[in-house]
């Protein structure tokens, strides 16, 4: 995939390294040559010096052929301007903007832009680890509002069914691992000893799920 990344700070740098390691064609834009230099001489992507929302700079970075654009600078305003240009002017199919102020997320959404709020995601993740350390999420979605976690079935649920645990819109057993194999369960499927439950859950429903499992806050 051809990807343009604007901003080569800590997040942008790591993103570029990950994408290049996966074999993508990456061009990274930053106005600070020293920021681009941190990528090192062996970086296989393109480095473009300039302002990330300047039309000519974007064209130099290959925005016209890009299949994705990430606005990862340290400025929300710069990110929104660059993301809008990539989306509306150059018609890049997939645009993601880094967001510091989560209060702006609704504005970005109205503009049709995907956002990642490190502030919200970080706060949700810290909360999960502080209050629900025994339920470590394997995947999170959005800004941490939804996650998938894996947990071994507790003794009080053995013999009960998926129907007894699922709560529409809050908690959903998406798969069960049993004796080395995983399957998607029906609502009537009964839990067996040593089952591992893979659960899609709202962060706001975590305490309720812990209560089902017989776990106390902080465990």
In CATH, the architecture of the largest domain is 3-Layer(aba) Sandwich
What percentage of residues falls in helices of 4 or more residues?
Answer: 25-40%
Average pLDDT for all residues: 85
Query: Based on CA inertia axes, which overall geometry fits?
Result: elongated
Radius of gyration over C-alpha positions, nearest whole angstrom: 22 Å
In this structure, how is the largest beta sheet organized? Answer: 6 strands, parallel
Unreliable segments (pLDDT under 50, ≥5 consecutive)? none
Ends apart, CA distance between termini: 42 Å
Structural class: alpha/beta
Going by CATH, what is the homologous superfamily of the largest domain? NAD(P)-binding Rossmann-like Domain
Strand sequence of the main sheet, in spatial order? 3-2-1-4-5-6
What would you call the quaternary organization? single chain
> What name does the CATH topology of the largest domain carry?
Rossmann fold
Which H/E pattern describes the elements?
EHEHEHEHEHEHEEEEEH
Question: In summary, what is this structure?
Answer:
With 219 residues, the protein is of the alpha/beta class.
Write the layout of secondary structure elements.
Layout (H helix, E strand, L loop, with lengths): L1 E5 L3 H12 L3 E6 L2 H5 L8 E4 L5 H6 L7 E4 L4 H14 L4 E6 L5 H6 L3 E4 H14 L5 E5 L4 E7 L18 E8 L2 E3 L12 E7 L3 H8 L6
Parallel strand pairs: 1-2, 1-4, 2-3, 4-5, 5-6
Antiparallel strand pairs: 7-8, 8-11, 9-10, 9-11
